[in-house]
Amino acid sequence: MSLKPFKTIGMGAAFSPNLKANLYEAARLSLFFNCKLVLIHVGEASEDKTKTLKVFLNAFKKDHLNYEVVFKPGDPVASILSATKEKHIDLLILGAVQRERFITYYVGSIARKISRKAQCSILLLIKPSVERVPCQHIVVNGLKDPKTEQTITTAFYVGKQLETEKITIVEEIEQDQIPVKVDDDKSLRRANIMKERIKLRENSRIKEIIEHIPEKYTKDVTIKLQAIFGKQGYSIGHYAQVSRADLLVMNAPSKMTFWDRLFPHDIEHILTELPTDVLILQ
Fold first, then answer.
1. Which domains does the chain show, CATH number per domain?
2. Cross-referenced SUPFAM superfamilies, in alphabetical order (predicted)?
3. Could you give the CA distance from residue 154 to residue 162 in angstroms, rounded to a whole number?
4. pLDDT, tens digit, for every residue of 5-15?
């Protein structure tokens, strides 16, 4: 398993009011992860655009930030996806959209299409900031899946680089794993016993994964295991929101199909209403 999952970070550089904040977030992450930063602008190149980007990034000159700017005219989705392949980007940063008159955030149509089609990991930012906001609490999915071990390992790597204080691993358990109809005290006790057995089984599985992660990534951080009975995607999103997590780390779905649009995949629940910044790992 790789403990240096990101070598090149990409960011869609749209000249919007959030440009400076997005650039600062991307630059800081590139420095934290010791990565090259590739800024992708959908549009024609111009001296004014190049100068604007350079002026903003002058703040990181002393840190020897390694970056380049790519101009790609054409369709935004196709242009960004082609740039990620050409530049071998393995983490792409995208901005979320705030719902009008609400404090919730969601993934806009362009970012959502990119999230579905990208072959690299995606970081969705809901509130980019020029001043650094510490990442104190990371929530990561612990569901039983072939990708989960790498996802949890990467979450600890990210936590180490960002000096995170706490990592919570959430095991989402579908209610149908409790095949007991609760209609009296006896059946309620049976259901509770089954739940406790499942929790113990899931905790044992997660602890085994953590044991395989090098100690330098797991020490000096509070680790919590949290089993939740409920719908995948919705449950972990709700938990990340109520626990005020700074980052939610999820497995990327194996493949998005037409049926996932009709019957939403766990990632689709997250994209519809982002609880916090979300890192989707390939």
1. 1-132 (3.40.50.620), 134-250 (3.40.50.620)
2. Adenine nucleotide alpha hydrolases-like (SSF52402)
3. 12
4. 899 999 998 88
